[in-house]
Amino acid sequence: MAGTAGGGGRTSPDLAELAADSASLARSGTAERVAAILRDRITEGYFPPGSRLSEESISGALAVSRNTLREAFRLLSHERLLEHRLNKGVFVRILAVDDLVDIYRVRLLVECAALRTLGEPPYDLTAVETAVSTGEQAALADDWPVCSTANIRFHQALAGLANSPRTDELMRNVLAELRLAFHVMADPRRFHEPYLTRNREIADKLAEGDAAGAERMLAFYLEDSRRQLAEAYAERLTGR
């Protein structure tokens, strides 16, 4: 079991699952690849906001040096996913309301533009359909953390329709940061369940070749999601 958090942070998760990721690093593991693993785990909700990341436990689980891990921490801090607290260690960031507003500003610009510039159908919707189906199956199993991850994969897939490696990288970072915001929702089912239907509707519009219609739906969708999360943040801050 991983060590407990210091300085008021939360208890670290069991790192046995993370240790399995060490296989993907092989013998040529680099800080960038370690950062990618940790970014994915943050996206999946494995490390929630406020979690203290233990150098000793994580470097051991991934079988990498502490210097490599520190460089990965530095990269993720630059992406605003982690923060260093003096004499306390490295923690997963807790987002502020301003962070949330800016994340949705970027999402609106990037995701809608990806659909707006699709060109002529048909479109390769394999990743979109996989994410939608995974979310629907997770909901049937009452597994809302997996549903939350599937929702993020859905939006990654929408941006991925632009066929731009730079856009993909940008959205991976933005959506990993967004996952930190999801933790403020006291009832994840109530938050995520309505968007399953909307994800399906957007996917169906794209399958019909109606990219313009899908973009309009997405714009309303993102505004509704932003408003819900902002209200949840406000309630958390006021203690209501």
Helix-strand pattern? HHHEHHEEHHHHHH
Total beta strand runs? 3
Strand order of the largest sheet: 1-3-2
Question: So what's the overall shape?
Answer: globular
Q: What structural class do helix, strand and pairing data support? A: mainly alpha
Number of helices: 11
List the helices and strands and how they pair.
Elements: H1 16-19, H2 22-25, H3 31-43, E1 52-53, H4 55-62, H5 66-78, E2 82-85, E3 89-92, H6 97-116, H7 126-140, H8 144-160, H9 165-182, H10 188-207, H11 211-238
Antiparallel strand pairs: 1-3, 2-3
Helix pairs in contact: 3-5, 3-9, 4-5, 6-8, 6-9, 6-11, 7-8, 7-10, 8-9, 8-10, 10-11
Give an overview in words.
This protein is mainly alpha-helical and 240 residues long. The chain is built from 11 helices and 3 strands. It has a 3-stranded antiparallel beta sheet. The longest helix is centred in the C-terminal third of the chain and has 28 residues, at 211-238. The relative contact order is 0.12. Residues 1-8 have low confidence and may be disordered.
Could you name the key traits of this structure?
single chain; 240 residues; mainly alpha; three-stranded antiparallel β-sheet; 11 helices; 3 strands; disordered N terminus
